[in-house]
Amino acid sequence: MEGVAPLRKRTQRAINANRRRLLREAYERYPEYAYCDPEEFNWHEAEARLNVFDLYYLADSGYLDVTRGSAGVHRTPDFYMLTPQGADLIEIPGLLAERLPLRKREREERKS
Question: What is the pTM of this model?
Fold first, then answer.
């Protein structure tokens, strides 16, 4: 894909931390949509592409609703908002740690 930054490798902790950040930002703005600043969400810079990747992952998982722009050949986010399923991740104790763990220990404690 021409002009698209490569996806750099990340740890599972880094992936989950970024996805949690996006969920919390949406939670803080609910019921309004959060704006996707083109400098923070674009396909041409590595860090910004990771944000696009994580945003669409959360949307495809049903945790966020994303409005899409029509510029270019790539899906480009304009705004995003928390869904009820995303709110459950934040509000139900332990669910966020189970789905997007930051520490291996959290996952192991949940299994016990």
Answer: 0.84
Q: Where are the domains of the chain?
A: 12-111
Between CA 45 and CA 35 the distance in angstroms is 18
Query: Which burial class, exposed, middle or buried, applies to 8 when counting CB atoms under 10 A from its CB (0-12, 13-18, 19+)?
Result: exposed
Token reading at 69: 């722009």
- The 10s digit of each residue's pLDDT in 43-88 is 889 999 999 999 999 999 999 999 986 666 677 899 999 999 999 9
Q: Is the pLDDT confidence value at 8 over 70?
A: yes
Give the pair of three-digit tokens for residue 12. Answer: 């599972």
CATH level 3 topology of 12-111: Arc Repressor Mutant, subunit A (1.10.10)
Report CA 65 to chain centroid distance, whole Å. Answer: 11
